[in-house]
Design brief:
The chain has 334 residues and is α/β, with parallel strands linked by helices. The protein has helices at 36-46, 63-70, 82-92, 111-121, 141-158, 174-178, 189-200, 224-242, 244-273, 279-319; strands at residues 23-29, 51-56, 73-76, 97-100, 126-133, 170-173, 204-211. The protein folds into 2 domains: 23-239, Spore Coat Polysaccharide Biosynthesis Protein SpsA, Chain A (Alpha-Beta Complex); 244-319. Strand 2, helix 2 (63-70) and strand 3 form a beta-alpha-beta unit.
Length: 334
């Protein structure tokens, strides 16, 4: 989260957007009957031409009925978890611009127009709404600390300069959405979206947006420790998958250093006396050095595989192109 002042929304929404631009607002929900109707109406006012979709993740309350009454199109996803819902959203909805938010009324709907302006004006593929809290209780201290730690770890591993990696308020281009191979099941989906953008070197940006406390009767489904550990585990999994040489090379180097430390006294004793009295230590250090070499070799092999996977992702990304958002090509006047 950030404390940066938020600029006002400039001009009416859609004033400079291409004609016929298809905008889809995607709202994943689980038991948000207390908030979803207001969220749908707010986005309908902010983006009058957009289609609003509520994907109900097996809610046990009146979330679906409230969303339909407010004017949204409702789809149902039985498989629990936000990642599973986002996967279905991206697969089922066809649009030129996608606005992803939460159904808990914590995000500032009028900022969506500014995020879309940024996406279209700079030909970006993803714009992240960096949250600026309106009230201290809107963002628990554990969530704030965890977000900073995970965002910092993400920057160290994958690069990039995100200030709010876990924000659920994002705007995407069509080619980003349709080339995104979603694998996450829960709240780690934001981490996967961020890594996908960084791996493709896609043009991205952040825009500050207001962040509010939940309305009365709406409860957070995010667990500070359980979901934080899941996000950290996802980051490690993606580190191994997307940076295998660095990941397995680091493990190999650490193992090799331990092996050398164990072997040093044995070697010194052998040089001094010609004897090897500590056979178990000698065998252990030799085995660890072999493991270290295998780890580095695995990293080299997997790095080649990863390069091929990355090329396939890039080809899928390039294959998705919306002509409405393509830059015009004029005749050469020379």
């Amino acid at each position: 989260m950030s404390d940066t002042p938020i600029p006002p929304v400039a001009g009416p929404p859609g004033a400079s957007w291409p004609a016929g631009l298809r905008i889809a607002v995607l709202l994943p929900c689980y038991n948000e009957a207390a908030a979803i109707a207001g969220v749908v109406r707010n986005f309908a006012r902010a983006l009058p031409t957009a289609r609003i979709f509520v994907f109900d993740n097996a809610s046990t309350d009146a979330t679906s009925a409230q969303a339909v009454e407010a004017g949204a199109q409702v789809r149902h996803v039985a498989l629990a978890g936000k990642g599973n819902v986002v996967r279905r959203m991206f697969a089922d909805v066809d649009a030129d611009v996608y606005v992803l938010a939460d159904g808990d009324d914590t995000y500032h709907a009028p900022s969506a127009a500014r995020l879309i302006d940024e996406l279209l004006g700079r030909s970006l593929d993803m714009v992240v709404g960096t949250r600026v809290h309106e009230a201290a209780e809107a963002y628990r201290p554990g969530h704030r600390l965890g977000n900073r730690m995970l965002t910092g770890a993400m920057g160290s591993i994958f690069g990039g300069s995100f200030s709010d990696m876990l924000s659920g308020y994002r705007v995407f281009s069509r080619r980003f959405v349709k080339s995104f191979p979603a694998m996450s099941q829960g709240f780690e989906i934001e981490t996967e979206l961020t890594v996908h953008a960084l791996e493709l070197k896609a043009p991205i940006a952040e825009v500050t947006t207001r962040y509010f406390d939940r309305p009365e009767g709406s409860n957070s489904k995010l667990s500070t420790y359980r979901d934080g550990l899941r996000i950290l585990r996802t980051m490690l999994r993606l580190f191994a998958a997307e940076r295998p040489l660095a990941f397995f090379g680091s493990l190999g180097l650490a193992t090799a250093l331990i092996a050398v430390g164990l072997a040093a006294p044995v070697v010194l004793t052998w040089l001094d006396t010609g004897l090897v009295p500590r056979f178990p230590t000698a065998i252990l250090s030799s085995a660890m050095m072999i493991v270290a070499m295998l780890s580095v070799a695995s990293g080299l092999i997997l790095d080649t595989v990863t390069r091929g996977r990355r090329e396939m992702k890039m080809l899928a990304y390039l294959a998705q192109r919306d002509q409405r958002l393509a830059l015009p090509v004029g005749n050469d006047s020379r």
